[in-house]
Write a structure and sequence with these properties.
Distance between the termini of chain A: 45 Å
CATH topology of the largest domain in chain A: Rossmann fold
CATH class of the largest domain in chain A: Alpha Beta
Largest sheet of chain B: 4 strands, mixed
Structural class of chain A: alpha/beta
CATH architecture of the largest domain in chain A: 3-Layer(aba) Sandwich
Bound molecules: iron/sulfur cluster, FE2/S2 (inorganic) cluster
Strand order of the largest sheet of chain A: 2-1-5-3-4
Number of strands of chain A: 18
Distance between the termini of chain B: 27 Å
Number of helices of chain B: 7
Strand content of chain B: 5-15%
Order of helices and strands of chain B: HHHHEHHEEEH
Shape of chain B: elongated
Helix content of chain A: 25-40%
Radius of gyration of chain B: 18 Å
Largest interface: A-B, 18 and 15 residues
Radius of gyration of chain A: 25 Å
Number of helices of chain A: 19
Structural class of chain B: alpha+beta
Largest sheet of chain A: 5 strands, mixed
Number of domains of chain B: 2
Shape of chain A: globular
Strand content of chain A: 5-15%
CATH class of the largest domain in chain B: Alpha Beta
Oligomer: heterodimer
Number of domains of chain A: 3
Chain lengths: ~575, ~150
Amino acid sequence: MDKITLTIDGKEVAVDKGATVLAAARAAGVTIPTLCWLEGVQAIGACRMCVVEVQGARTLQASCVLPAAQGMVVKTHSPRVREARKMILQLILSDHRMECPTCARNMNCELQALAKEYGIVDIPFEGAKSSVRIDDSSPSLIRDASKCILCQRCVTVCHEIQTVGALFPAHRGFATTISTAFDLPLGEAACVNCGQCALVCPVGAIVERDDTEKVWHALADPDKVVVVQTAPAIRAAIAEEFGQAPGKAVTGQMVAALRRLGFDKVFDTQFTADLTIIEEGNELLHRVQDGGPLPLITSCSPGWVKFIEHFYPELLKHVSSCKSPQQMFGSIAKTWYAQQIGKKPEDMFVVSIMPCTAKKFECQRPEMYDSGVQDVDVVLTTRETARMIKQAGINLLELEDEMFDDPLGESTGAAVIFGASGGVMEAALRTVYEVVTKKPLENLDFEDVRGLKGVRAATVKVGDLDVKVAATSGLGNARVLLDAIRDGKADYHFIEIMACPGGCLGGGGMPIPTNWPVREARARAIYEEDKRLPIRKSHENPFIKKIYDEFLEEPLGEKSHSLLHTHYTKRGV
Amino acid sequence: MTKIAQLEKSIKKLDRNKGPLIPLLQQTQAIYGWLPEEALRHISEALDIPLSKVYGVVTFYSQFYLKPRGRHCIKSCQGTACHVRGGKNVLQALEHHLEVSEGGTTKDLKFSLDTVACLGTCFLAPVVMVNEDYYGDVAPKEVPKILKNYE
Ligand code: SF4
Ligand code: SF4
Ligand code: SF4
Ligand code: FES
């Protein structure tokens, strides 16, 4: 690659041709502040926070969109640059509903951090202020237009990465706002609740709905048995909320912290992830024997499910009828487990800890009341859970490791990898192979479906059958596969789709920032957990055997159908 | 031909390579007189552009209307000259007599009332324009008389 050399703050730096000045500065060890720019998401030069002074240029230049040129001389913090940045911050803040102490993004807000960095102590522009406009119609997300800085990151993620297109700038001038079609409340728009917008928002203008009070309330209620389940991805990320670098799994400490919070039982969604593999693996085998409909597509990700319900309802027959592991857990906890401890479903309170904002929507779906009451009562994201742990004064990182409770806490390596894109596929292959061939699988690691980006495809020999599989994440990628299925060009047997880029470890409820290096670090932690676990195949989980012996009887049996399977709803756009 | 059929025809004739959205919105408004939601949904689907974006574009340009318009279009000038010579009072009189506020349309769909920044006839200030007719040096009390000219 051709290199060019330029001078940044008096230091010479060589970069690849085509690099931006922003990237060149980073190579020179200088961080230029940004607001609208986000690596791998958007570079539109809109906010002008990243301006620099280029020798010979009359005006300041936005470095995020400025290509570095041979011999360029750049100053990144001259008085002129600093004044311009201060002015931009002051202008933004002059129409910003500042309520940092009560804001969900307090202490993790890019605007707040920059205001501090630039020593903004007063805001000289006493302009008109937009009125407070909070949209709390969505079960998953709260939008506050009076904190929005119009950076458009959410728009780009929603349109280009997720191809949902729920948000777009509307109106003009001072009235400009990020809006749904016809200014509909988000809860009524064709939004899939994935929360990717909340992950990229630099400020508190889109945040998860905070349901922690409901959980505190339940924990204090002596008449309720309050149980909690934790999704695979949480253990690989929650330490970040306590200041740890990404990539450290803290499973045992997380369990200990939840027990300290007062949950009666700390269970694991991984138990029902194993159960999903048994049910879905059998569903796949049935569909292969009965001639379809194929491909079978996974149904663990409620953002993905809502996406196909909105945009490709004609393909719903391809989606597995299996409920997601979180919902299987809810119905099992309120039936099988409740019976064991002599409780009625209404005496149980089930809390889910999920990487996902769409799970908050999923648990309220009318299809999810199979125990007779709402199967999962409250979903908390990783971020909310960390908030509760901090509020209780628990220092997660200093706790001794503890174990999940039986019987819904036992799980396998196959279940933990559900947290990474490709993991459900790999877990299913481990089981389907052994069930079909009745031979032990030699190599458990299906590397071909691993890796977080794009569409990965593989052909796996299972007995006489060449099983063709694919895995992807991010709804833009899902669209590619769906179009291929619709056009009869996808001869796969089984496809895994997760709504969020990278899978659950990149979920909309995960710690902020969530970017590609962070996702990769979390994936490493997840695959290490898999290696560490003594049992790595779902069908070898002893409690899975037990639940079929004592309760469910057989995969896809009558009980399974009423508690573990579901159906879908066509939705318009 | 029904309106939706006319819209279909416009869509068929579109040059897809040349940013088709705005021309199509203009044609749609010519067909309906405004941009009804069902037409915008149709356009979103036909051009494969998310509805939020169609809505964003429609609300960005003041030439597009999301509500039915009155048969007669009133423009009350609020440019500098008109402002200085009492344009605001004229606007208030219009709002009072029509019982709508700026940007609105009367219930009987007779009049729509808008403001403009300058009609280029500052020597007539304050100016009101109804359809193609100019009224200059308008006093608030003359407003009812002007409105009477229209059916
Ligand atoms: S968005 Fe940031 S600056 Fe605004 S109130 Fe929240 S924390 Fe404070
Ligand atoms: S939750 Fe997902 S679909 Fe909904 S607005 Fe945000 S990014 Fe778009
Ligand atoms: S909601 Fe957040 S991400 Fe979207 S434009 Fe506003 S500040 Fe940017
Ligand atoms: S970060 Fe470069 S213009 Fe916004």
